[in-house]
Amino acid sequence: MKILRIGDSLIAKAGKNEAKKACFQLFEFLNFKNKLKNIDKIFIKPNIVSMQHYTIGSITDPLAVDELIKYIRKFSNKEILIVESETIWKTRKRIEKDEPDYNKNEQLIGFNLSLKSSGIRDIVKKNKNVKVLNITRAKKLDSNRVKNKIAKKFGKKANEVFSEFFKMVPVEFDSKAIFISLSKIKSHCFEDTKVTNCMKNQYGLIAYPDKTVYHHKLSETIQYVNMIAQSFFDCYYITEALRYTMEGGGPTRGDTLKNLGIAVVGRNPVEIDAIAATLMEVNPLKLDYLQSSRGLLGNYNKKILEKIPKSFKYRFRLHPMIEKITRENSVYQ
Description:
By secondary structure, this protein is α/β, with parallel strands linked by helices.
């Protein structure tokens, strides 16, 4: 296994049977052990974007979630909440007819099936004081409380956040806690994103099931949900493609890649996503959502990206409709 420090982040390049070893090294680098003594909760946000089995590569590997919980339990028995929201396209009508569906019973069935196929349900069952927080159904904080928290962290920028976002934050978030985003490195079919790493993962904090209404303003949406997370928590970011991931028509309709053995961790989501894009041989300057968040949610130095050796990289095949516009005139051609 190879470990490489780039800026304030760490890259792991693991062999086929080194995923657990890599997880330990990555968690150690994040160095949140002392934080666990003075908090009440730990939030873990995996990427559970569909009811697909985790071996397809579209969702966070449950091995990484399980190893993270085991690591935390060495230092703390505090409550761990695995957070995710419902989406309307998981219902039968949405899948079969591609029509919006607000059937709450089927939404919940889809949510529970996604927990099963992701491996999260089994992890929750076998671990004490680990629960799932369904953000869609959770009781929400007062919107003024949320806006004031964001304004304290980001000033006047809070006025740009979509007003409905102030009404979607669970009461559980108003606590002494840390937030660990555990996402998947993979391709994505939208022009704003093109790839999806740690910052896009917070899209799942949107409590409203019909998230498609934000697809036409994706860069702003990604920025605002990350502002919410950073306003309430000390945030730690892990994005992985250790055993399974997806290229081509991601986030759910691409082709599975196995055993790339790559993961990136740190506290700066902008730098992490720039590093992850570089590992995918995608120019970070081509990622609209990333560039719009530079200087606000974090930053990166282009020169440090040039230090990443070729042996760490894999040229991800992107969605065919955006492959050309992403890599045209790219330094990675």
